[in-house]
Queue: 3 jobs
Job 1
Amino acid sequence: MEYLDFELPIKDLEEQLSKCQVIGVESEIDVTDTCKQIEKKLQETKKDIYKNLTAWQRVQLSRHPSRPYTLDYINALAGDSFLELHGDRNVRDDKAMIGGLGKIDDQSFMFIGQQKGFNTKTRQYRNFGMANPEGYRKALRLMKSAEKFGIPVITLIDTPGAYPGLEAEERGQGEAIARNILEMTRLKVPIITIIIGEGASGGALGIGVGDRVLMLENTWYSVISPESCSSILWRSWEYKEQAADALKLTAADMKKQKLVDEIVKEPLGGAHSDRTKTFLTVKKSILKSFETLKKLSPEELIDQRMEKYTNMGVYNG
């Protein structure tokens, strides 16, 4: 178990509890009451820490190395029914963007999402979740296939941004993202978007236009990361906490500004602390959203989607 800096009081109590339990097993001393007191203190400390998280602390939680990634969600939701599809039929298969067909219960979906790695080797293989233009073109190819066969689309967002390399720009990174945004606004099947980790800039928007946009509690969604914002405004990363507050990037901020439709609650301690519960909650939210969307005709879906996005940022003084 890895702990973030603000979680160190929890780490200390868990170590105390573990030692207390070991003493109880290895000796004849009754430590039941002591263990219960530590457990009570541990629960109180967890509640106190996680109910008062700052914007920067939520950013840290969204990047937790134990946090479930896109493939973890797909495997939990679709299981053995998932069939991954590869390539953009133009350049190559982008390993940072994955997609394919799968079933939740008896309903087929097209799953698309950014995938990060869990160690040095897989992080390099997945390009740290930063897709190239061919990744966005693969995503669009899969969405158009889903439209052709009347299959709803689920996109899972978890990226620090689209890959900013020279070769990505040469192959049309900006155009690929812009094309996806345009095509997603007029896709004739339901689109359910879920922010499961980092939702940074155009890299997130390239698969982020949805009829229903769900956001896990400890995630963030913004035009820029707190570190980059800090480096631009203050010429230093030291002010990343202030930048995180100013950017209004948390799920609560997004919901208040009507940029997302629903906040998906996470278990106490974050999505990684109880993966099974997190996957079940996400599944319920997806199926609930789909029940509403499947009643709409393609024309109604497109009209409502267009109205939703054109209303964003409108202010009546």
Note: The two ends are 50 Å apart (CA to CA).
Job 2
Amino acid sequence: MSDPKTEDLHELMNRLRRAGEPFALATVVRTISVTAAKAGAKAVIRADGSIAGGWIGGGCARGATLKAAKESLADGETRLVSIQPEDLLKDLGVSAGDERDGVRFARNMCPSQGTMDIFIEPVLPRPSLVILGASPVAVALADLGPRVGFDITVCAPAEDQDAFAEANERIEGYALPVEVPGQRFMVVATQGRGDQVALRAAVSVDAEHVSFVGSRRKAASLREKLLAEGVPAEDLDRVKAPAGLDLGAITPEEIALSILAEILRLRRKDQRGEAGKS
């Protein structure tokens, strides 16, 4: 029979995933001597450093673990924290806060003077690639996107939905939800079929990035039409056209690859410590 506490923790993690909330999972992987928590103990830690559920011990482990969890969520990298008594740290030739071979060391100030190693894994919501249109480029984006970590939302008329083999979410037409959890990247790939209505929908909601598959001239013409309809200029200023990096792409698959490359550069800019441009 499974442990009810473990089941509760799994339920909590599933709920946070569904809500699009990032969290870190801290797991005690090794203990030596007397420690409050034993190997296998787990805790779910929110981005603000609060423990949402589970338990990994008392104050001896809490500070170093929460600090490492917040850093892990900021850069998307795992952490291994080794909490040891000061005399053992000296024997290793390290101080609290030092890192060696991927291990960060912390001091155990508790009377038990045990050692505890904690592995911290960030669980980040998958970003959403919202594809508006059913052009060959749109179909190629829906095929390539999941391979580089995106959930796919397809927005297209009902009669065009069959062009897409799979999608995490399907929207008939272009009635986009205003707010969604996690990051959302928009690509208008209508290519002559519903350009104006799709672009209007894309700029009307929050998104990390909005791009348009088409020439600068075509995008400029659509901009003037949408301005005349009352769409705010600042909303239209967000549109990157033509979509994608200039890779000399010709085929739909090549164009889709250039678009994903541009989005990935934007998505990873903070993790690389670069300024990036949207």
Note: The longest strand covers residues 23-32.
Job 3
Amino acid sequence: MRFLLPFLGLFAFPAMAQPVMFPALSGNAAAQTVVVYSSLDEPLAKPMISGFQAANPDVAVRYEDMLTGEIYDRIVKETDAGQKTADFAFSSAMDLQVKLSNDGYAQRSDLPMSGRWPSWANWRNTAYALTFEPAVFVYHKPSFTTQKPPSTRAEFVDYLKRQGSAVYGKIGTYDIERSGVGFLFMARDQEQFGDIWSVIQAMGAAGVKLYSTSSAILERVSDGRFVLGYNILGSYAADWAARHPDVGIVLPRDYTVVMSRIGLVPQAAASPDLGRRYLEFFMSAEGQTIMARELQIPAVSPDVAGVNTANTLREMLGAQLRPVPVSPGLMVYLDQVKRARLIARWNEVLRLQ
């Protein structure tokens, strides 16, 4: 599973960090500064910052890591107040990033790779998916010594029904009311799988436990309290599997949802040229290679091959992979009525048992 190496910063909730300055490598104290708002923890982002500055020694970087909602709120508030905002924004909240683009808070960035970027990963040259990260089933290996773990949603349901009380309370997934990635995956499931509510009903009958973080589920799978975890972000799962040999990973064969982090240049950027230069580096073969090898997040670029890349995953899994398109469709569940309706049905189906 080397193609799903860990990325520990995804959907983490750090305390508000102070901006970190990375002086220009040229030593020029008056160098231009690119301002970055990002949901990547600053220590994890350093390889990308270092790569960018090696290619742009005349540019300093002001790096501000914050929650995904805070990135959205700051850009909107600063723009609406007539102030300047970040030059580049990078976030795992796909829906909020697309909303910024759709509502006019992001500007067009026509870059050398724009025409070659996958069509699903590029919304009108304003919002670009820069990573390729699958959702997986996780399982407790010692619990499957005499049978294979489920590899499709139908097999998942069949296993729960056959095992009955033996697995009651030993299944985990995200709480879609509290987990952004959990809600995204559930919304995508509803689009991809007509019988998804039978899966939710089966998990409810099996006493599924709900959590807002990946680590809470993976910890319980690793020590045997849980036998299965549903729709877990693969980067977290691979990290646990590397450190806990009893954790197994399955990319579901019926379909595997793939989420991405999105980068854009805000409309009110103080230095949009620098923001585009930063985005261009993210999209370059060099930047995407750093993403895959050093940040250990699967790269989306069609020009980057090898371990931890979309190219390798597609060679292995083909049409099984279902990336979440970067499009206004992502905003559907920002509608509070539609969001509330999905959550209400989720709770109702879980309670039917």
Note: The chain has a mean pLDDT of 92.
